[in-house]
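Sample entry follows:

_____
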Amino acid sequence: MKPPKLLPIALSLCTFTLGSLHAQQSPEQDDDEIVRLSPFTVQESADMGRYQAAQASSGSRIRMDLMDSTQSISVLTNEFLNDIGTTQLLDAVKYVAGIGNANNPDIMDIINIRGFGSLGATLDGFAQSSLINLDPIIIDRIEVVKGPNAIIAPQGPPGGLVNSVTKRPLFKNSGSVSYQVGRYDANRAEIDANYIIKDDKLALRVVGAFTDADRYTKEKYSQNLTVMPMLTYRISPTTELTAQVMVYNASATMTNIPASFYAVGRSNVHIMEGLSRDFALATRNDNRHESGQRAQFFLTSQLTDKLSMRLAGNWAQSASRASEIHPGRPRDVNGVPIDPEPAQVNLITGEWEWDGVTRLDDPLFIPSGAKDLTDRDSANLQNDFVFEHLGQGWKSQTVAGFAINYSSSGGGYKNAVAVPVNGSNLFDLTDSSFSPVSYMVEPDAEWVAHNSLRNRSHQVYLYQVLNLFDDRLALSGSLSQNRYFSGRTDNLSGTSTEERAEATLASGGIVYKLTSAVSLYYGYSEQEILGLADPNNLIPAHTSPSRQHEGGLRLRLFDGRLYTTFTYFDIKQDGVWEPDAANWIDPTAPKRPGINSNRTAKGFEFEFAWSPTKNISVIGSFTDFKNRDQGNRRYAHVAERMAGIWGSYTFSETGALRGLSFGLGANYVDERPGDSGGQYTTPPQGFPPARYQPLFWLPSYTEVEANATYRFNKHWKAQLVVKNLLDKEFFRSSSNRTLYLSTPFNPKLTVRYEF
């Protein structure tokens, strides 16, 4: 498909090489030296409240008032992140409507957005692939864009993305150091230091954190050293350059525990009989380790009084070494797999059943798994131009730009097995003498798989916003032309495959303001993901296009102290391929080609941020939606009803309790399907194949957390954060017949010195 004729204009603009940012006027500056506010920079007002945000830049790479957006954008402020004691992204975004747990809460910042899985973090609009969770020390605020968005993530997940906006140098001397102790997930030191090297010209900031924390499960821990130095140089009153470098070295272990053999349907869902809540299968060596470096820059400039530019680049490199040991199938004393197990699938209905009689009381296991070694590199370049025109009762904003993205990875895995004890590799996990096992990879072990991957994409886009009738009506639309390339080489066989695709994606919407405080909106957006061929199931190379219709009501009342949204969304993803069910009837018959199906997500969301007084701040959300396949079947690990609320109160600056504040929050997650095996059953002759139903359902739960902060003086303060305040035992998620349990009652105390 050829690019639209307007889009090459954006490429010709890219011959410019300057860009802009903002600052406030100092007494020494005259009118010609005032640093103008860049359209790429978010401006916030502290008068609205601690959790209130009026603008975001993640929707279209430029600053936008949330009231004017035709797509749902949620913002979590730095004050909120600090109040709840954020240790990973999921701590914070669980209070955003439509976001929930996925299949593994311990690694990769895995979450579901409107039911679609999202892997890895996005930093300042650049996607990041990582095996470990991002350290929040570098994050200033979080902006969540929901639904397909072809400008910022043409190949992102259809549900949306979580964009973490990093901290930037400030033109003031300030900083803090802190140390945290606690029961679990604590033992953490932080530093955040900002220094003006040259007034109104050059500022330096360094943020860093070191964590060496034990988790509640035996032998499980997390370690992370992250340091990010950064500089901002004001080249002129209208031009600014920021450069950042991040270096990290981290290890993480997973806290999953084998599920009961009798866990089927909505009953008997618990960990394996005889295991304690803090059971660990393997030693500390069973972990994920990753070290990496990341560098990025942002150059912005106001070229004329109407034309501004942004040039941004990113480079990242990482090396990961991961091992994962699993118990495997239950076995008898001779090491022979026990069959059948108590939980069996009904081949006609696909439902899992337990007869209530069959027992498996003394199983033995041969723990085994894999050792993975992977190196990754990525680079990104973005260039955007904004032309703004103000007329009598109307204004126009035209944005054009391009992006180039490249990533590569190489690596593979070898089989790993538990080190025998007393000459035996059979282990009784319930034996009181059992201790976590070590694993080994034979020195001469061969690679099971070893691959090299290469991905490239190019994007050119044009975005137009027109505000009419003194800002009562806003019309917007965009075109994004994208080309994708993916190459894969099997280093063991030497075979290579390449896949290419091209997509022109559109979006558009309308916002009508009944008053300056009440707006109605509708938006349409598209996205397209490059899929991979599966020759074994006769699935060809393909793309998976997504589109979203979304509409709702926004309110901003009481001088911005109350901001709330009511949203209805409808997402459809096509190009969801799956094997033909007929292939399960007679495996010896010639295979039939795969079937192209779809996936939908539709429902309601409600969010609000409220600060009725300067002492009170509240944030909350509610979600009720359905994420289903073409046969109306639910997806694993997706809760379709969620809610969250957090509130804080700060005592008056005068009085006996001055300096004291506290907060209380709760998060509700409805039941969701656990694992399901395979695609279709192989039923008795005369019956059609049936889809496997979830092996079990994870029960709903409500988690309560709280904090209390006391400021002794302008330099010292202490914060106590308590996770799982009511000490409830629940299942956060599941994976491969294992369960991730809640961490027990968990207080953490942080002492901070500010300078």
Q: What stands out?
A: The helical segments are 7-13, 78-83, 89-93. The two ends are 57 Å apart (CA to CA). The chain has three helices and 40 strands.
